[in-house]
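Hello, quick one for you while I still have it in my head. I'm working through a protein record and want to make sense of it properly. Would you mind checking whether the tokens look sensible for this chain? I owe you a coffee for this, so here goes:
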Amino acid sequence: SPAGPHRADILVQGPRIVAVGRDLEAPGAEILDAEGLTAGPGFIDVHVHGGGGHSFFADDPAEVAAYAAWAPSRGVTAFLVSTVGPDAAATAARLAALRPAIQPVPGRAEPLGFHLEGPFLNPVRRGAFPADYLREPAIAEYEAFHEAAGGLIRQVTVAPELPGALPLIHTIARLGAVPALGHTDATVPECRQGFEAGIAHVTHLFNAMRPIHQREGGPVVAALDNPDITCELICDGAHVEPAVLRLAYRLLGPLRAVIVTDNLHLAGAEPGRAAFAGESITVSGAAARKADGTIVGSVATFDVHFRNAVDIFSLDLPAAFRLASTNPARVAGAAERKGQLEPGFDADIVLLDRDLRVAATICRGVIAYRRA
């Protein structure tokens, strides 16, 4: 609970939590003995491109379904499908193809919608995305994406300094998604214009954006300086130096920081070689990189990021679960039913041992993973 760990029973009926307290009576109920374990709200990953060998950069809903079956082994109970295509038609087709997978399935992590990372990104800060994937903001193009996705886009990363970005940001917010600042070379004034237009979140703070400059500031400074902006932090030890993460967290605090993985399909897989957008990538340690050293994504799974965050930020468990579940639930538009172990909320529960390793995961009332 927000007050700290305490002994309690959690009574689940169907997909919901119905009671939390001591010595609850439930004759005939199945009992999962969690003695010695810590129960928290299941992890929610709002920036993930796949994992367990399953990729969201494909037009196959079976890939999303397979990831949803694998993710509970890492404590994940809900996620946003983070994707984009090489051009407008391909992006719309991908959203339409994956749309049937955006629904809860018993015993699996729940896809809460889409995170569109692109195509409205600054080529100067494109990171691993090919330049020909990117385009200037166009409202009609985004409206086509919205229609193809069936209104299920929940987050859109956009560079606010691009021509036409501010009207697009208004449109994204009006159509029900969270506009997120990312892959940007914006100045502080340009970021502030984006915030005024509707940006409420930052995609992987520090990565693929103009770095801090003592006279020019940049998006990192603009975001940390705004008390209404939440920020994604990748805590794999490869994307951002831990001391830099620690400095950011001192300004963000437990209400504004959001743990994400930015996982590729290679997360949880053996190190080796693979491909991204037609280019060879090499997996080593916690990240996958292109031949020139550019980081493509993380391969450290969510439970690893969670443990790293606890260590880097010296978090107590209530704060850690806020970063891993409560705050991302708000970003994903699911805060009314996910991110807390309270009556009326979805029974999304992760059980951790003393080393904060996943012992079991429950997705909407169904045991989805139990460590042997």
Notes: DSSP finds nine helices and 20 strands in the chain. The mean pLDDT is 96. The domain at 42-338 is CATH 3.20.20.140 (TIM Barrel).
